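Bug report (template v2)

What were you trying to do?
Predict the complex of my protein with heme C.

What happened?
Run completed; filing so the output is reviewed.

Input:
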Amino acid sequence: MSLRYILFAVLLTAVTAIILWKFGEIDAPSFADADDPGLVERGGQVYAEHCASCHGADLKGQPDWEKRRPDGRLPAPPHDESGHTWHHPDEQNFKVTKLGVAAFAPAGYQSDMMGFKDILTDAEIWASLAYIKSRWPEAIRRRHAAMSGRSQ
Ligand code: HEC
């Protein structure tokens, strides 16, 4: 095989990798679009199945969610306007849902909020966040969008 063929093969592989990478990016939503009815509906199913047991079907979280339990862990916070979820940009909520709270806390931190990376796809995580966002009052959605540098 001549050097030319080898170079061509390397170039082809690189181009394919770049195309796949770019398409992957286009495919995956990069924010929780609560104005996409299909995404919100899928997210409602994901939420009911994987989040509601702790965060509540009504998004109200667990009682006394701001007080650590005797075992040192925090109860699940609400995802409605009374909680902190909307204080964080979509990206951050995505990472916490995917990797779990402990990934962003000091070593040894114990939390009931495990990561969902082996349970849900990225698209399902985005859908659950779109559902949560769809439940926020308009004024909160506007504040959250402004904070994230977006128009919605
Ligand atoms: C086993 C209970 C449990 C389940 C199931 C669960 N969570 Fe949580 N979640 C928690 C707890 C507890 C916390 C707070 C943990 C801490 O700060 O130590 C939390 C925190 C969070 C936060 C950060 C909120 C904030 O104010 O910063 C997000 C976002 C979140 N959960 C999203 C989800 C989503 C989305 C799902 C479903 C895919 C889910 N959680 C499922 C218990 C749970």
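What did the reviewer find?
The mean pLDDT is 91. The pocket of heme C is lined by residues 50-51, 53-55, 74-77, 83-85, 88, 93, 96-97, 101, 111-113, 116, 128 (CB under 6 Å).
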